[in-house]
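[Target chain]
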Amino acid sequence: MRRERGVALLTAIILVALATIVAANIAFRSGMTARRTSGAFLFDQAVQFAAGAEAIAAWALREDRKDNQRDDYSEAWARRYGPLELIPGSGIWLEAQLDDAQGRFNVNNLVNAEGVARPEVIEQFKRLLATLGLEPKWATLLADWIDADVEPNGFEGGEDTLYLAQSPAYRAPNAPIVSVSELLALPGFGIERYTKLAPYLSALPPGTPLNVCTAPGIVIDAMTDEREYGLDEERLAKARESGCFPTKAELQAKVPPDQWAILQYQVADRSEYFRLRSFVSIGTTEFALYSLLKREAAGVRPILRTYGTD
């Protein structure tokens, strides 16, 4: 009798344990499903609010073009939007900032429209790298990464033979890039160099000029082979509070005529491409959207979006 009672007790304990495991699993799955549903709903909400920021930015850029032919950071489109609580008491906040994407060195200009490397632009990029304390060789390597041919550009260049030797192996795209983060694909480049260089770079269509009204001083100096505007960035920012500085005409007066014959097609004082950073907070959930906007005669349209990271 005692043996039978022991077996019954052990069976009951096992059944209770199994029921507890099943109940805990059901509760866990239900909780995770609820969290995923809530996360998806908040993500969809945040995307819509960020789309609203794109619409506001597009309106500001259209209004700016109506009575102005230059683009600089003293204008209304460059002012920070927010942080603003979209619905009072809702805990939904939006913050947005427009930057001039053409105020950075366009790495796709290392090649022309046919995909042929441009030695004069490679030299400009080398000067920018040297100013930041980085090795000039990365300019040639990046040009080979983008150009259309499969032959290395001198002993500093690199094509498929270089990248196939990596682990894992990969190939050079031999096409314009869509994100400056592709610099990290260059063997040995590393995150430290990228963090130092990325704020001065953009990845726009080949042939897109640099806006001298919004470009950092060291980028302008790299283009002109002078050391003037990058020596004191605070002084440059102060000069730009009232408008464009330096203007294209002022830049022309400082460079030799033979150099200007090439440089005049590489610089401008108005822009078509702008970068919008939108940050949405809903309670404890934070969302970031980075949009590349193009201003055209017909309006403004987004041509690239990235979520979470720039």
Summary: Residues 209-270 form one domain. The two ends are 74 Å apart (CA to CA).
